[in-house]
Amino acid sequence: MPQSRESDARAILKSVFGYDEFRPGQWEVIAAALAGEDVFAVMPTGSGKSMCYQLPALVAGGLTLVVSPLIALMRDQVGQLTRAGVAAASLNSMNSETEATEAWDKLNAGELRLLFVSPERLAGDGLVSRLRRLGVTRLAIDEAHCVSQWGHDFRPEYRLLAKAREALGGVPVTALTATADRQTREDIAQQLFPKPPHSVVHSFDRPNLKLAFAPKDQPKRQIAEFLTRHRGGSGIVYCSSRGRTERLSEGLREKGYNALPYHAGMEQGLRNRNQDIFLQEDGVVVCATIAFGMGINKPDVRFVVHADMPGSIESYYQEIGRAGRDGLPADTLTLYGIEDMALRRRQIDEKAVEDERRRIEHKRLNAMIDLCESALCRRSALLAYFGEETQTCRHGNAPIRCDLCGGEAELTDATLDARKLLSAVARSGQRFGAGHLADILTGTMSETIRRQNHDGLKTFGVGQDKSKSAWTALTRKLFAAGALAEASVEHGGFCLTPKGEDILFGREAIALRADLHADRRTRRAGREAARADGLDEGTAGLFEHLRQLRLSIAREEGVAAYIIFTDRTLIAMARERPLGLEAMRAIEGVGERKLTQYGEAFLEAIAGFDG
Fold it and tell me: What GO molecular function annotation could you give as one example from this UniProt entry (predicted)?
């Protein structure tokens, strides 16, 4: 790569986007693209994947065609680019007649540098042949995991992109994704490239994300306590059902949060409205199904909560990746329970898929369950799933970024208690649920115990040294470990598996992690702690003042607030307090176009702030 190309790229990086340095992994992808190579990049969300096709388009010129799966994401990226002075447009079904005409006028005049289209749009109406005549110089494929049947967002339209590339004249391709295990990566490369591409697999680590898990124990209370430190911040709460999104958002609104539901069953106009409010404004919490997510390009999402356990580590990683895209600290919390595990296993078993696909999906689910019940560093366990070795949070002076490294989690021998519980399962007929088993073990005389004569079992009362909640938790852990299975789809309850029989009859031992329970004093200390973003009072006051100015400008222009400036840039302004345009130019994220458009207004706000 000629030195002048890198110099040109760095100059544009600063003048257009306001950044002094590339993020890790970016330059390798950009350099390969500028050299005309096919590139396949797997980079975590927040690592600046979009820069990997935007910058080559500006350095080398010509027209870059960007395939993106969602209209909202296209419009968002076009809005950001045009405000930075980049000639970009999109062709999609939401375009007004004026927008479509302007896009084609610029295309025909050779003025556009980036054109965004959906895979469906690219497949129809002779668009490819028309674009070939205009001279597309490179093809960028965002969210490339959609092409793989092993990916969690498989979209058949992506399978047409290899033919589209050929029809465009075999132009170089840059394909990017944030989430793909080894099997998915191999499938993507095979589907999109005629020969092995230049591959860049960057670290999957997101050190700015804090990972936390907790067994379900009054989930509404757990979520409300978690959100207390994030008042004023934007976030997503993922739920497993449409009704749950409605109920949870209503409950959070009653507590004073600007909380909105989002799911595929909502009327389209309301769904779009709620998404736009989340994208455009600050301090909005969306309670959503997984219908909400891919293409959400909001950089200042401060937290992601899973109210129910995700079905795989790929889905989990993709969804928590929507937090902290700006690189600032962000929190995650995943709640899980035995009902989640049973539901996910049942869903896989009921799918009309081949046995090999079912086996792989069970393997992925078991990996997710293992992450929930792990006694090891969450980050290490998560990264190991993607084939990456790393030190634990406790290594050296690294910040504690998971709940296990911050607590005292460790594996302990649970064989004796497990045998007591498994014996209760066997002696009661292998068809009762966790609550009834806990009643047997604690010697609690319930109506069902009396009716079934289970007070006469040898195991009745043998576990009085532990609480009912402790026995219920052990049932969950044994189910997670594969020692128990669901007895009946219709009626629930548990039965022994071969592994459970081995433990019961002394052929196998089992070690399990004790649950981490924060006491009320710990929870109260968390509520009274400093701001989640770590800003001192004076800086925080100016940051909020600048956010209000940003919001008013964004509303006037009809765009998302972060398109004006990101939170990261506003925090830098609040800390540095620039007094003139030259000082403002040095702030990360302030390019020349934005300096001209907004610099004076923000300097005036900083100078006039008396906090």
Answer: 3'-5' DNA helicase activity
Is residue 317 within 8 Å of 364, Cβ to Cβ? no
Of 91-95, 407-411, 492-496, highest mean pLDDT: 492-496
- Which residue is listed with tokens 């997510």? 293
Amino acid at 166: E
Contacts by 575-579 with C-beta closer than 8 Å and gap 24+?
Answer: 575/539, 577/542, 577/606, 578/603, 578/606, 579/603, 579/606, 579/607
Structural domains of the chain ordered from first start? 3-201 (3.40.50.300), 209-406 (3.40.50.300), 411-513 (1.10.10.10), 537-608 (1.10.150.80)
Distance (Å, whole) CA 326 – CA 322: 10
CA angle 536, 538, 540 (to 5 degrees): 65
H-state helical runs in 301-414: 313-320, 338-350, 355-373, 378-385, 403-406
Residue 396's pLDDT is: 61
The dihedral built from the CA positions of residue 598, 599, 603 and 604, taken in this order, carries a sign that is: negative
Residue type, 132: R
Find residue 336's DSSP bridge partners. 215
Smallest CA-to-CA distance from 375 within 512, 202, 499 is with: 512
d(CA 387, CA 305): 25
In single-letter form, the type of residue at position 13 comes to L
The percent helix, strand, coil of the chain (3-state, each to 5) is: 50, 15, 35
Give residue 2's pLDDT band: very low, low, confident or very high (50, 70, 90): low
Indicate the length of the chain as a whole number.
611
Alpha helices in 231-351 (DSSP H): 242-254, 268-280, 313-320, 338-350
**Alpha-helix runs per DSSP H in 213-267:** 219-227, 242-254
Best CA proximity match to 272, nearest among 83, 427, 70, 122:
70
pTM above 0.85, yes or no: no
Most confident range (mean pLDDT) of 174-188, 262-276, 396-410 is 262-276
Give the C-alpha separation, 107 to 113, whole Å: 9
CA-based R_g, the chain, Å? 27
| CA–CA distance, 236 with 63 (Å, rounded to integer) | 35
Q: What is the pLDDT of residues 334-392, one digit of tens each?
A: 999 999 999 899 989 888 888 888 898 899 899 999 999 888 889 888 988 888 887 77
Q: Is the pLDDT of residue 584 over 60?
A: yes
Q: What is the pLDDT of residue 388?
A: 84
298 sits in the region (left: phi over 0; alpha: psi -120 to 50; else beta) called beta
Cα separation of 556 and 606, whole Å?
20
- Distances from the Cα of 187 to the Cαs of 159, 192, 357, 382, in angstroms? 11, 9, 14, 22
Tokens of 528: 């009274």
Please check whether residue 399 is in contact with residue 393, taking contact to mean a CB–CB distance below 8 angstroms: yes
Q: Whose CA is closest to 563, among 538, 519, 530, 597?
A: 597
What end-to-end distance do the CA atoms of the chain give, in Å?
Answer: 50
* Cβ-contact 376, 392 below 8 angstroms: yes
